[in-house]
Amino acid sequence: MGTIKSVFATNVFNDSVMKERLPKETYKQLQRTIKEGRHLDNAVANVVANAMKDWAIEKGATHFTHWFQPMTGVTAEKHDSFITPTDDGRVILEFSGKELIQGEPDASSFPSGGLRATFEARGYTAWDATSYAFIKEKTLCIPTAFCSYGGEALDKKTPLLRSMEAINRQTLRVLRLFGDTEVTSVKTTVGPEQEYFLVEKEMFDRRPDLIYTGRTLFGAKSPKGQELDDHYFGTIKTRVAAFMEDLDEELWKLGVLAKTEHNEVAPAQHELAPVFTTTNIATDHNQLTMELMQRIAKKHGLVCLLHEKPFAGVNGSGKHNNWSISTNTGKNLLDPGDTPHENAQFLLFLCAVLKAVDDYQDLLRISVASAGNDHRLGANEAPPAIVSVFLGTELTEILKAIEKDEQYGSREKELWKVGVHTLPRFPKDATDRNRTSPFAFTGNKFEFRMLGSSDSISGANIVLNTAVAESLSQFADALEQSADFNGTLHELIRSTIREHRRIIFNGNGYDEQWIAEAEKRGLLNLRTTPDCLPYFIKEKNIDLFTRHKVFSETEIRARYEILLENYSKLLNIEAVTMLDMANKDLLPAYSAYAQKLSDTLNAKKAAAPDADCTFETERLKQISALTGDMYRKTQALEGTLLDLVQKDFDELGRAQYYQRTVFQAMTQLRIVADELESITDRSFYPYPNYGDLLFGVR
Ligand code: ADP
Ligand code: MG
Fold it and tell me: Hey, whose CA ends up nearest to atom 22 of ligand 1?
């Protein structure tokens, strides 16, 4: 394998490549477009496109594609070759500025929540010049946004870029008030830690549930699970190490700074963390990481499972979204700093985040809502479905002192004054970490830990950026109108702490008592996707997004429909897959085992009338009773689906029905089936079992 230096970003058309390959004037104009969001004119686009094409062809590319992130969980691409036929029967390789800037994928089958039906039949893709083009599988990929002709966003990138613009605007207002004249742009930064499972491909291929739904719908616990914690940070198996090495190298080529790879808590579970970068690039990179994990695993005879809960009874997979705000002068605005002035500014940004998380708990919960993630949140392994903020004891004590105008620490009789005193240093190391908190301050950034492993990180960051932009805009309003900056600042910080301290929780998030306590505090506990989605279209949330021009009301309503519809579709696929497995594989297998027991019983009796047939007799009774029960549960599940046909639900009603009725029937069926598995002759079980799957990779 090449060294990181020799391979890093070799497949990326990045700044240094542009500088080298573009005429000076073109390069400058492109930079202006990137930095100031100006329109790129055709002549410039043609020059850039041509340079990009030559570079890509030298690297072995034959095709190009507009790479985009539609409302489905994956990325989409439609490959076109560079080839253009000439009149004399030859071909030339071409790529025009127009093809670079705009594309028209046949988008009719991407989810639009009715947007395209109402407006235009087709959508178009537009180059996001702030994210570099790259080569993947001999294809030049151009990161693009995907919109309808009416301008409505049909993807996950467009609103993310808009939310970054919103927080940029409001942060600059606040920085100016603190006397900063240097900073000209502010971006949020993200480092997403990604969890995943690896299983043998040969075993995966024999499980219809994994193939169709990404998770096991049946499966009794293996004798050993994760109880010994011996997998966490344990030695990485040779095959897994080879996969990781390969993955790192491929990611580096694409400029993704994959940094740490290690084992996670559950057997067969692993994690990858990259070095953080600007949010929209981090989002593109995380999509690429997930895609490459799946592709490279196959090369190693493995399958990478990105589902949030592939196995019952062992930890599922999530994603930690480390988030901060950074200036173009290189300053991290969530770093407390050393001087009273820096500390005061830090406290205001900290308060902006506290207020944002409290005011928009519902939106943060929605940003991580999916059928898969419902298995984790609130199930004692991931942060609960309740959103709260961990600050650590010291910072919390300081906030308390500010709020109450009390002395802090050893300062005798002296009150802690914003802008006058200096904060103590907060530990940045892992020792003070509370792993059960959904949203934790970790010294100079926040870590949002509720994301599911297969989520695009765009949703969470759209909400974070926009909600914090809203807090900052309110703060800026108050400070701009004040004649006494320091006094107003102090009061603003005090009142924000007073109004939003309920969101601070430093205790154990997995504790039952927290649920009761959170309820007392008036915090939301939205357990499932159908529980939280209706909050998306609440007036205060529509106001937030429209005020900051992140979503129009039409776009919000469309997204709401899409999310509900996705949820129902997913549950339907799961239910149908369960029926298929129960009817065609499992019930016949248990019945065959009963037959074997009965044959043995008869044979024994024929050989010796007084033979001890306790096992055969008892087991046969047990298997008969349980298979009968399993058959009835299968029928019941089927019944819930048949009933649905007669119901006249809207999208929300349907999603609720799937959650309350269909999912319950699935759970009931699984319980009996798993019990049967645990008392059935191994050789009759038609699939690789939990032990095979979890401990199969050697
Ligand atoms: P861990 O959580 O494993 O202890 P770190 O706290 O060092 O490790 O980092 C976790 C992730 O947070 C990494 O992806 C890192 O790049 C990212 N990170 C660090 N600083 C920032 C920042 N200012 N903004 C966004 N992400 C950051
Ligand atoms: Mg972490």
Answer: 324
Of 36-45, 314-323, 609-618, 659-668, the least confident:
36-45
Atom number, ligand 1, closest to the C-alpha of residue 193: 14
Residues forming a β-bridge with 133: 13
| CA–CA gap between residue 645 and residue 661 (Å, rounded) | 14
Looking only at the bridges linking them, the beta strands covering 186-200 and 318-327 are: antiparallel
Report d(CA 167, CA 601) in Å as an integer.
74
604-631, pLDDT tens digit by residue? 999 999 999 999 999 999 999 999 999 9
Q: Which helix (H) or strand (E) holds 668?
A: helix 663-678
Residue whose token pair is 């692993």: 270
The per-residue pLDDT for 236 is 80
- Three-state DSSP class for 180? coil
Backbone angles phi, psi at 229, to 5 degrees: 55, 25
Ligand 1 nearest-atom number relative to CA 259:
14
At a CB cut-off of 8 Å and minimum separation 6, what does 334 contact?
A: 324, 325, 346, 349, 350, 353, 441, 444, 445, 446
Smallest CA-to-CA distance from 403 within 286, 321, 492, 509 is with: 492
Query: Is it the case that residue 486 has pLDDT exceeding 80?
Result: yes
> What is the amino acid identity at position 536?
F
Q: What is the pLDDT of residue 210?
A: 98
